[in-house]
Q: What sequence folds into this?
């Protein structure tokens, strides 16, 4: 069970901070119109009250034993550094059916797995490159998936390394760029 103050990854939502752990009664204080109940449960069920780190005025209430949504701790610093060092070697998503592209991206985001997020970003970067070569822009849908994947990836890296999301993006670019320059 996570404790108040812990940072966790909550499915496609990304990094959240645990604000409270308790029954529904303790959640009545958050009547600001931005609250999201993940699902209805019995009154004695314990809930996490989560605050997404990169969205203001949103609270998520979810049962602590919710099995429908991936909940996991934010990566440890060592795991984050390993991920960053592996980025160059992570493949793109093998999308063979263009009609399923959006579904593949949705599923990858839903996992909350940083390697999947890297795959989404790399796939969309390649797709953008090809579209630009053909005189086209990135589609709105692709742009939205790209922004979500970047936000979630750099958000988790930021929390793990104790830096801002912008600094995390710069750090990753620097590390990946340095690797490319050495080869």
A:
């Amino acid at each position: 069970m996570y404790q108040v103050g812990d940072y966790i990854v909550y499915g496609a939502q990304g990094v959240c901070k645990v604000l409270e752990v308790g029954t529904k009664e303790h959640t009545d204080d958050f009547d600001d119109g931005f609250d999201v109940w993940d699902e209805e449960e019995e009154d004695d069920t314990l809930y996490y009250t989560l605050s997404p780190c990169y969205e203001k005025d949103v609270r998520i209430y979810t049962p602590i034993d919710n099995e429908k949504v991936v909940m996991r701790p934010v990566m440890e610093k060592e795991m984050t550094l390993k991920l960053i060092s592996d980025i160059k070697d992570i493949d793109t998503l093998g999308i063979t059916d263009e009609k399923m592209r959006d579904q593949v991206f949705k599923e990858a985001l839903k996992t909350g797995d940083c390697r999947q997020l890297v795959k989404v970003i790399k796939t969309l970067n390649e797709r953008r490159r090809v579209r630009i070569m053909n005189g086209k822009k990135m589609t709105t849908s692709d742009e939205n998936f790209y922004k979500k994947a970047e936000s979630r990836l750099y958000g988790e890296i930021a929390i793990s390394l104790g830096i801002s999301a912008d600094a995390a993006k710069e750090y990753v670019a620097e590390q990946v760029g340095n690797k490319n320059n050495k080869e």
